[in-house]
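Input structure tokens:
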């Protein structure tokens, strides 16, 4: 999986172009082994995860570590100025702490979307 800045990807489903926040699956041969790869919209995945947390539809065990909680809170949506266009937009930005658990949770959301669980 690879998070990108792209907002959406077009999938051909039953002859129609459907826009989703993840790209169609690609197959690659790496040292004779078939590997699967796809891109996804990092910003949109983070929006979905944040909405699920806020609504109570993303649950974690009550005894998670303090480090897990710290990493899940390591990014927030902040105003960002595009240097090329000067446009202001809201983007997920890291606070400087590790956010590996946040990123892994975003990937879990993408897999749930792929399997139509959400």
């Amino acid at each position: 999986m690879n998070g990108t800045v792209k907002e959406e990807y077009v999938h051909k489903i039953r002859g129609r172009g459907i826009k989703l926040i993840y790209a169609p699956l690609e197959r690659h041969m790496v040292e004779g082994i078939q590997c699967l790869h796809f891109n996804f919209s990092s910003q949109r995945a983070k929006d979905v995860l944040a909405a699920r947390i806020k609504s109570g539809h993303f649950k974690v065990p009550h005894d998670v570590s303090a480090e897990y909680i710290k990493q899940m809170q390591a990014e927030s949506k902040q105003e960002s100025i595009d240097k090329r266009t000067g446009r202001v937009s809201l983007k997920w930005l890291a606070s400087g702490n590790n956010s590996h658990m946040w990123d892994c949770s975003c990937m879990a959301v993408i897999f749930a979307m792929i399997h139509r669980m959400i």
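The mean pLDDT is 94. DSSP finds three helices and eight strands in the chain.
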